[in-house]
Amino acid sequence: MTKTKLNTLQCEILVGILLGAASLQTESNGRTYRLRISQSEEHKDYLFHLYNIFQNLTTSPPVRYEFCDPRKPGKKYFRWSFSTTQQACFRFYGHQFYNGNKKKVPRLIHKWLQPRSIAYWYMDDGAQKWKGKSLGVRFCTDNFLYKDVQLLAHVLSEKYVLKTSLQKKGDGWRIYISSNSYKILKKSIFSYFICSMLYKFPTEKRATEMVFSF
């Protein structure tokens, strides 16, 4: 196994996508990890963009596969995915972001969450609150423990001066960022978005056409 170091770009993006849908998997009791990324057919361009960033750690290109959602029997979807090889350079992040097989938010996330990280987190698991009617956005943090979601919201509030709130969704919690923080958020992260993901971010309209949320 070749020892490889992650560059700054890879580190900042990795933090963001691990808060999102990406995962780290180990077959060596935590000595090495591989990064696995999967996206819908709709987000194929985004997946290939991520592949290009981590390509030096892979040995095969992304693959397309069929996916069946158990919540919608009989309906089939196509997704794209790729995995890196097992690498020691992911060990630190594997230990920070996982408790066994369960994802967690690192205690020191405030040190690593850069604007680029937030942008990729949003492209991965963010959405407009009411598309076309509000400048508010949300992060789908449903799979994290409540205390972890609280920590993330605190970092966004304290480090980036964003007005946040937590709202329950099923058994989990999501982070909402107020439309009042739209300009701050856009200035911080929008320049890192790739073209195919720009649609996910709210577009300013005349105030009379918008519903301003908390």
Automatic annotation (TrEMBL):
Keywords noted in UniProt: Chloroplast, Plastid, Signal
Presence of the UniProt keyword Disulfide bond in the record: no
Alphabetical list of InterPro entries matching this protein: Chloro/Mito_RNA_Process (IPR052500), Homing_endonucl (IPR027434), LAGLIDADG_dom (IPR004860)
One annotated GO molecular function: endonuclease activity
Residues covered by the Homing endonuclease LAGLIDADG domain: 12-185
Region forming the signal peptide: 1-23
GO biological process, one term: Group II intron splicing
Pfam short name (any one): LAGLIDADG_2
Plastid is among the record's keywords: yes
Protein name as catalogued: Homing endonuclease LAGLIDADG domain-containing protein
